[in-house]
Design a protein that fits this description.
By secondary structure, the chain is α+β, with helices and mostly antiparallel strands. The chain has two domains: about 100 residues, Uncharacterised protein YqeY/AIM41, N-terminal domain (Hypothetical Protein Yqey, Chain: A, domain1, Orthogonal Bundle), CATH 1.10.1510.10; about 55 residues, Arc Repressor Mutant, subunit A (Orthogonal Bundle). The chain contains eight helices and five strands, in the order βββββαααααααα. InterPro entries: Asn/Gln_tRNA_amidoTrase-B-like (IPR003789), GatB_Yqey_C_2 (IPR023168), YqeY/Aim41 (IPR019004), YqeY/Aim41_N (IPR042184).
Length: about 200
């Protein structure tokens, strides 16, 4: 898989890291990407979560954050990023016949975050508050790599639209509804919540 390569560019006396983009140059700061379409200050600002929509962009951000955490000597963040990178690399190796997709990266993040939260609950049970807090902090850091999350009301609206679009009337139509709804909520909502909402709309339990 080709990874994003950051280069140093100069404009108006300023220097910044940027990665080539189909529409220009994608400038990087610690909290956002700015897509410059010309040498002038003609740019659009993208929050990291909303801009990162491909596996290539995701890995590019991950590598940039790894370098940043290393320079800052942020051990907790560094450990989280290294584990996440390792899991994604393993995912890519297992899918030798298919290209790594953004959705694959999102699933890895969700699984790792859930594992951390589950571990935190177990540590709570044996009164290891410090370790539980560490697990929750790692889960929080992992979730910064997820797309902006939809509210329950937003999921409800999208589910209703999907039900109407496929003409679903019973729980037997759930598969068709999910096929339409899935791409719109992938990585943006808890899958269990999505399933629960769809089942209720279709009269299931």
């Amino acid at each position: 898989m080709r990874r994003a390569t950051f280069v140093t560019v100069s404009a108006g006396g300023l220097r910044a890291s940027a990665v080539p983009h189909s529409s220009g140059l994608l400038f990087r700061s610690s909290t956002r990407f700015v897509l410059a379409t010309s040498a002038r200050a003609d740019a659009r600002v993208f929050p990291l979560r909303s801009y990162t929509t491909t596996a290539e962009e995701f890995v590019g951000k991950l590598m940039a954050d790894l370098k940043e955490a290393t320079m800052a000597k942020d051990k907790v963040r560094l450990g989280v990023i290294r584990r996440l990178r390792s899991e994604i690399m393993n995912k890519e190796k297992l899918n030798v016949d298919a290209k790594l997709e953004f959705g694959d990266c999102v699933k890895v993040v969700q699984q790792m975050a859930k594992q951390c939260e589950d571990s935190a609950k177990e540590f709570d049970k044996i009164n290891q508050a410090d370790t539980a807090a560490k697990e929750r902090e790692e889960a929080r850091l992992l979730r910064t790599y997820l797309p902006a999350q939809l509210s329950e009301a937003e999921v409800q609206q999208l589910a209703e639209e999907a039900v109407k679009a496929v003409g679903a009337t019973t729980i037997k139509d759930m598969k068709n509804v999910m096929a339409t709804l899935g791409p719109k909520v992938q990585g943006k909502s808890d899958p269990s919540l999505v399933g629960e909402i769809v089942r209720k709309l279709l009269g299931g339990k």
